[in-house]
Amino acid sequence: MTQYIIRRLLGAIPLLLVISVIVFIMIQLTPGGPMAAFEENPNMTPEDMARLEEQLGLNRPIHVKYYHWLMKMLQGNWGYSMTTKRPVLQEIGDRLPNTLQLMIAAYIVALSVAIPIGIISAIKQYTLFDHIMTTLAFIGQAIPIFWFGLILIIVFNVWLKNPTTGKPLFPGGGMQTYGLTGFHLMDRLYHLILPVTMLSMFLMGSYTRYTRSSMLDVIRLDYIRTARSKGLKERSVILHHALKNAAIPIVTIVALDLPGLFGGALFTETIFSWPGIGRLFFRAAQRVDYPLLMAIVLINATLIILFNLLADVLYAYLDPRIKYS
Question: What CATH number does domain 94-318 carry, 1.10.3720.10, 3.20.20.70, 2.170.120.12, 3.40.630.30?
Answer without folding.
Answer: 1.10.3720.10
